[in-house]
Amino acid sequence: MPATSLDPAAFIKDVPDFPKKGIVFKDITPLLGNPAAFTAAIDRMAEPFKDAGISYVAGIESRGFLLAAPLACLLKAGLVPIRKKGKLPRKTKSASYALEYGQDCIEAHEDAFPAGAKVLLVDDVLATGGTAKAACELIEAIGGQVVGVSLLIELDFLNGRANLAGRDVRALVKY
Ligand code: AMP
């Protein structure tokens, strides 16, 4: 069986009521732990962007890093970590976004990429889309061009895409 025919959904486990009651957590560790399935998923996430001239892959802390790093190597691009507030050592730009209760903030180094750089944004799950929207705005505030957003999983019923209108959003597995 060619690696690309492995179904990533078979390696994603639902964990009800984690981290709190009412949330069905999508656990991707079985996928990460299976070399054939992991490789196939990364190949498929890269495929739509392989001729797009991507020069940086930006991954959202923390599970986004696990996908963004191999994607960056595959696309022969640099890796840019988008981190929670206060984690990066040098001068940053930040973007805030609303949570169910309160606000959260993500940051990237202000010199993470040169003006006009073509950037692919990567995360594990698109839920409400608030995190990905803030990350796109952060990349643009630094001067990057968001060529696309690549997710392993999209929770369709939360309509996170509405927060990413006009962007090239791809997801391997939809629920
Ligand atoms: P959102 O901003 O609502 O789109 O949430 C996206 C972020 O929260 C991603 O970085 C995910 O890692 C995480 N996330 C949201 N919902 C889930 C879920 N059901 N399972 C796993 N991670 C999730």
Give an overview of the whole structure:
This protein is of the alpha/beta class and 175 residues long. The chain has one domain (51-174): Rossmann fold. 23% of the residues lie in helices and 34% in strands. The protein contains four helices and nine strands. It has helices spanning 29-32, 35-46, 63-74, 130-142, and strands spanning 13-16, 24-27, 56-60, 78-84, 92-98, 103-109, 118-126, 145-154, 169-174. The strands form two sheets. A seven-stranded mixed beta sheet has the order 5-6-4-3-7-8-9, with helices on both faces. The protein has a two-stranded antiparallel sheet with strand order 1-2. The longest helix has 13 residues, at 130-142. The two termini are 25 Å apart. The protein binds adenosine monophosphate (AMP).
Sequence-ordered SSE layout with sheet pairings:
Elements: E1 13-16, E2 24-27, H1 29-32, H2 35-46, E3 56-60, H3 63-74, E4 78-84, E5 92-98, E6 103-109, E7 118-126, H4 130-142, E8 145-154, E9 169-174
Parallel strand pairs: 3-4, 3-7, 7-8, 8-9
Antiparallel strand pairs: 1-2, 4-6, 5-6
Helix pairs in contact: 2-3
Bound molecules: adenosine monophosphate.
Residues 23-26, 60, 63, 123-132, 160 line the site of adenosine monophosphate.
